[in-house]
UniProtKB/TrEMBL annotation:
Zn(2+) binds at residues 499, 503, 605, 609. The lineage of its organism: Bacteria, Candidatus Kaiseribacteriota. One of its GO terms (cellular component) is cytosol. The keyword Cytoplasm applies. Consists of three domains; the N-terminal catalytic domain, the editing domain and the C-terminal C-Ala domain. The editing domain removes incorrectly charged amino acids, while the C-Ala domain, along with tRNA(Ala), serves as a bridge to cooperatively bring together the editing and aminoacylation centers thus stimulating deacylation of misacylated tRNAs. Its main location: cytoplasm. Binds 1 zinc ion per subunit. Belongs to the class-II aminoacyl-tRNA synthetase family. This is Alanine--tRNA ligase. CDD domains: AlaRS_core. PROSITE patterns: AA_TRNA_LIGASE_II_ALA.
Length: 642
């Protein structure tokens, strides 16, 4: 089965069981200043898992686009990817363990056709000190499900990862692990949870690539004496996890039951596809196979040649991730999300060069070809990748970044030569500081520094470089946390006023600059608002003054702000502005500044807003502080109420 077929089967399976299929949220989180990207299927649904009522009811399902920047360095083995799709289904106080485990098992074995003998499951071992019981209910349900397939499922107590590596499989099929492996809360393990925080046990399903006679993947002893489902040797692959949110931590440190018990399930689409093909290398499923075949054709190198396998995987993964990131409005830059997008494209370009398919002088570069393959594969499921404008924007941005990287490399090579010749060669090594300088100032990848140094028999202080990078990331992360403090995740009066001012600003920009202006990103804190928008030129002083005047005028007019729920196509006919790259359900929330038939601004939006524009002025007059470029064709404005 292809990934498109599996995704469709999953959504149809749960739709038949009373679930509303909701669209994937953007990779750029909405109203969540704590993270740069959407990294899990449940992330956009946290408010509803914590008790807020969802407009589409208590049973939901979707396939969520996800990106995890921390996995960039892991890409190169047979299972790590940065971008992935998470199949998800949720019960918000409706069904619980019995239905969830049965349905997922049925989907895997009857719909996808996985051999149940290749499936192994885990459950929470319990914590006597905290009064949390062993999850014998999940274990009993699994035992019954396997029995229906003629399999006797033995329970084995493993505990910690260290204990599991010592004890091994012991002919088990249901394995009890401690909270480090089989407990979920936003704060991690139960003892780390603050009072009032919900959490609960989870139950994971693993596919065994070593269970057949062919034993495709044997245990590697460097990961522990014995193998077990959570072993990192590659024999087992986690393909799904059901979280049962049933507990609430009390102020005295004990745990009580939540009034409503929720199910939060996430299953990796690419991993399920790998299991469906009994293929331990996730890069051989159709999500990547066409890109890899394309590179093989033009490079005349084989994917299974161990000298090149890692580079094949990095190019395939990073281009796919970049396509989705660009489709959701992120543009390469030197900060925040833009930095990650730039790093993906440049790292892909670097490894394309290793494969002899990186050529800055060719218009139809390998990265662009790979991007086109990705768009064609995913455009039906994710329409934000479709359309002439999106196609040109995505491929054009990748091409520009690839050319810029090639130019940067020329400067980096010159600086490397200077360091190597005059400083490193006499002493026999390149210092961590020098490698860090090449990376941060010249954009020169550490891998290239290391390879060129090895050609000269010069060593590089890799550990020192990693320490400097970690310090750099820690400082950046702290800066981001400070910068986004009090963002739209809170609903304070100041934030709400600035959010409504944001609507006025976008409408004013379109009035002054033209209808080509579209929102490409935003962030709003209690102190200021920020909007990224499409426009090719620096704004003049006169244009900025006129935008300011219009916003303040509309504040003074005291226009009512009206929320209307309507059909999505009706909102589109009204010309409602929408978040770039976002997918919306068939019924949407629309905020208009003024009556719909003669509104100054109409936008798809989930709030919060003031009820009248006059309320914005209570925080002061609207003032633009800065207007600047953040990427090619994308400008940024920061503004305040003062």
């Amino acid at each position: 089965m292809t990934i498109n077929e599996i995704r469709t089967k999953y959504l149809e399976f749960f739709e038949k069981r009373g679930h509303t299929v909701i669209p994937s949220a953007s990779l750029v989180p909405l109203n969540d200043p704590t993270t740069l990207f959407t990294g899990s299927g449940m992330q956009p649904l946290i408010p509803y898992l914590l008790g807020k009522e969802h407009p589409h009811g208590a049973r939901l399902a979707n396939s969520q686009k996800c990106f995890r920047a921390e996995d960039i360095e892991e890409v190169g083995d047979n299972r790590h990817t940065t971008f992935f799709e998470m199949l998800g289904n949720w019960s918000l106080g409706d069904y619980f363990k019995k239905e969830q485990l049965r349905w997922f098992f049925e989907f895997l074995t009857d719909e996808i056709g996985l051999n149940p003998r290749n499936l192994y499951v885990t459950a929470f071992i319990g914590d006597e000190k905290l009064g949390l019981p062993r999850d014998i209910e999940s274990a009993a349900l699994w035992k019954e499900l396997f029995a229906h397939k003629g399999i006797e499922a033995e329970e084995v107590e493993l505990g910690s990862q260290e204990d599991a590596a010592r004890k091994g499989m012991r002919n088990g099929r249901i394995f009890y692990y401690d909270a480090a492996k089989n407990w979920w809360s936003r704060a991690g393990e139960p003892e780390n949870m603050p009072p009032g925080e919900p959490g609960g046990p989870d139950s994971e399903v693993f596919y065994d690539f070593g269970a057949t006679d062919s034993s495709q993947v044997a245990h590697d002893p460097k990961f522990g004496a014995e193998c077990h489902p959570n072993c990192d040797c590659g024999r087992f692959l986690e393909i799904g996890n059901s979280v049962f949110m049933q507990y609430l931590k009390r102020h005295d440190g004990s745990f009580g039951h939540l009034p409503k018990q929720n199910v939060d399930f996430g299953g990796g689409l690419e991993r399920i596809a790998a299991a469906a093909h009994d293929e331990p290398d996730v890069f051989l499923i159709d999500a990547f196979a066409e890109i890899i075949a394309l590179i093989e054709h033009f490079s005349r190198k084989a994917y299974d040649d161990s000298r090149y396998t890692r580079s094949f995987r990095i190019v395939a993964d990073h281009v796919r991730a970049a396509v989705f990131m660009l489709g959701d409005g992120v543009r390469p830059s030197n900060t925040e999300r833009g930095y990650v997008a730039r790093r993906l494209i440049r790292r892909a370009a670097q490894h394309a060069m290793k494969l002899s398919v990186g050529d800055k002088d060719k218009e139809d570069s390998m990265l662009v070809r790979a991007a086109i393959v990705t768009i064609e594969k995913y455009k039906e499921a994710y329409p934000e990748l479709d359309g002439e404008h999106a196609y040109e924007e995505i491929t054009g941005t990748i091409r520009k970044e690839e050319v810029r990287f090639a130019q940067t490399l020329e400067k980096g090579v010159k600086e490397f030569e200077r360091i190597a010749t005059h400083e490193a060669t006499p002493r026999g090594f390149i210092s961590a500081e020098q490698a860090f300088l090449l990376f941060t100032t010249y954009g020169f990848p550490f891998e290239m520094t290391k390879e060129l140094a090895e050609e000269r028999d010069i060593s590089v202080d890799e550990n020192g470089f990693k320490d400097l990078i970690k310090k750099h990331q820690d400082v950046s992360r702290a800066g981001i946390e400070q910068k986004f403090k009090g963002g739209l995740a809170d609903t304070s009066e100041k934030t709400t006023r600035l959010h409504t001012a944001h609507h006025l600003l976008l409408a004013a920009l379109r009035q002054v600059l033209g209808k080509h202006v579209k929102q490409r990103g935003s962030n709003i804190t209690q102190e200021r608002l920020r909007i990224d928008f499409s426009h090719g030129e620096k704004m003049t002083k006169e244009e900025l003054a006129e935008v300011e005047r219009i916003v303040n005028e509309k504040m003074e007019e005291g226009i009512p702000v009206v929320r209307t729920e309507m059909a999505k196509d009706e909102a589109e006919k009204l010309g409602a502005e929408r978040e770039f790259g976002a997918k919306y359900p068939e019924r949407v929330s629309v905020y208009s500044i003024g009556p719909l038939e003669k509104a100054f601004s109409i936008e798809f939006c989930g709030g919060p807003h003031v009820s009248n524009t006059a309320e914005i002025g209570k925080s002061g007059a609207f003032k633009i502080q800065k207007e600047e470029a953040v990427a090619s064709g994308i400008r940024r404005i920061k503004a305040v109420l003062q």
